[in-house]
Design brief:
Layout: E1 5-8, H1 17-31, H2 39-43, H3 50-58, H4 67-84, H5 97-106, E2 110-114, H6 120-126, E3 135-137, H7 150-159, E4 166-170, H8 173-181, E5 185-188, E6 200-201, H9 205-215
Bound molecules: 6-O-phosphono-beta-D-glucopyranose (BG6) and magnesium ion.
The site of 6-O-phosphono-beta-D-glucopyranose (BG6) has 18 residues, from helix 3.
Length: 216
């Protein structure tokens, strides 16, 4: 295997924003009278688009909503979420991320982002990650949500690297499936660790970086 590029998911892989998504969806659920919106429900929102995430919330109520109402609910959640990003900074980058990116770059391996989030540019800017990547592919580029591989294939294309030479780092089951559907090597972290479809599983990027750097 000759990995030429690593494509990183954003929420829950590079930055702690997965927790802020959860808080905003939970607040929206409560406004809709849904009180039992749990971390287990939130796990199914990982990696998938904003509208697909909304459907996970709406499954928990018998109320029916028109497409216009759904769009308004998704916008409401996004407004709460974006508000919660106001204090986001470099300190919200997950452990080992800066070190791991520097490490792969020193080996001549390219780095890209592949995220469903339409807030990707804002988050990269606020966390001082924006200039660390050779390419960014996000919800603003795609028409299909993970587990479709589109977001990763766009990233590979922007990098000029063949999909089979790319590794994806993901914390969602949908993202691991997307990586494999795109013919890429899949590294599972955090919530996706131990997904049987992943090629390898690690606790987080810090442990992967430590393991690699002692061997280098
Ligand atoms: C993914 C998150 O990274 O982005 C999902 O894991 C989220 O939970 C999706 O729904 C879309 O994000 P945004 O910021 O465009 O609403
Ligand atoms: Mg994620």
């Amino acid at each position: 295997m000759d990995i030429k590029a690593v494509i990183f998911d954003l929420d829950g892989v590079l930055v702690t924003t997965d927790e802020l998504h959860f808080a905003a969806w939970k607040a929206l659920a409560e406004e809709l009278g849904i009180n039992g919106f749990t971390k287990a429900d939130n796990a199914r929102q990982r990696g998938v688009s904003r509208m697909a995430s909304l459907e996970v919330v709406l499954e928990k109520t018998d109320r029916k909503f028109s497409n216009e109402e759904k769009t308004a609910l998704a916008e409401k959640k996004n407004n709460m979420y974006v508000k919660s990003l106001s204090g986001l900074s470099r300190s919200d980058v997950l452990p080992g991320v800066f070190e791991f990116i520097e490490y792969i770059k020193s080996k001549g391996i390219k780095a890209a982002v592949g995220s469903a989030s339409k807030n990707t540019p804002l988050i990269l800017e606020k966390t001082e990650l924006a200039d660390k990547f050779d390419a960014v592919s996000c919800g603003l580029d795609t028409t299909r949500s993970k587990p479709d591989p589109e977001v990763f294939l766009i990233a590979a294309n922007k990098l000029g690297v063949a999909p089979c030479d790319c590794a994806v780092v993901e914390d969602s089951d949908a993202g691991i499936e997307a990586a494999k559907a795109g013919g890429m090597y899949a590294i599972a972290v955090g919530a996706a660790a131990h997904n049987p479809k992943a090629d390898i599983s690690v606790k987080d990027l810090e442990s992967l970086y430590k393991a690699l750097s002692i061997l280098a």
